[in-house]
Amino acid sequence: MSVDIDVSDRDWIAGVRASLSDDLTAQTARLRELTELSADTGDPGEAHNRAALVAATRQNVERITGALRRIAEGSYGRCEKCDAPIPAERLEIVPYARFCMPCQRNHNG
Q1: Could you tell me which residues come within 8 angstroms of residue 76 by beta carbon, excluding any fewer than 6 positions away?
Q2: For a tag on the chain, would you pick the N or C end, based on fewer CB atoms within 10 A?
Q3: 36: number of CA atoms within 13 Å, CB side?
Q4: In whole angstroms, what is the distance from residue 88 CA to residue 97 CA?
Q5: Which 3 state secondary structure label does DSSP give 85?
Q6: CA–CA gap between residue 73 and residue 78 (Å, rounded)
Q7: Are 57 and 27 in contact, with CB atoms under 8 Å apart?
Q8: Is-contact 65 73, C-beta < 8 A?
Q9: What is the DSSP letter of 81?
Q10: Dist CA 12 CA 26 (whole Å)
Q11: Which of 103, 18, 6 shows the shortest CA–CA distance to 64?
């Protein structure tokens, strides 16, 4: 079932902004914890896992920050490649989406 959401709806955008801000706070705290946790156990597997977690968390912080920037600029919900609207259903699932699905497929390519 498709839900019609107008991405220009201020209340909806405010909710997305609040949710993204909460996520940013959580991810920033996680990144701080991971980078401060420097106990070297001597286990290369452990070091590899920690490095992967740090990289993934940094990527999440960058994605969330980008979405918050687009909200502030008024470009949130528009594809960065073709400027088409990104369906609200997609933004509900991937709130930091930068591309519509056709452009995302080409970007992943």
Answers
A1: 7, 13, 16, 67, 70
A2: N
A3: 6
A4: 10
A5: strand
A6: 11
A7: yes
A8: no
A9: T
A10: 21
A11: 18
Token pair for residue 67?
Answer: 């979405």
Partners of 78 in the beta sheet? 85
Of 68, 63, 69, the residue nearest 16 (C-alpha): 68
Dist CA 103 CA 79 (whole Å):
8
Indicate the residue type of 104: Q
Q: What is residue 50's three-state secondary structure? A: helix
Widest CA span in the chain = 53
Give the pLDDT confidence of 32-87 residue by residue, as tens digits: 998 877 656 667 777 788 889 999 999 999 999 999 999 999 999 999 999 999 99
pTM: predicted TM-score of the whole model, two decimal places: 0.81
Residue whose C-alpha is closest to residue 86's, from 25, 16, 1, 22: 16
CA separation for the pair 81, 61 (Å, rounded):
22
For the chain, the C-alpha Rg in angstroms (whole number) is: 17
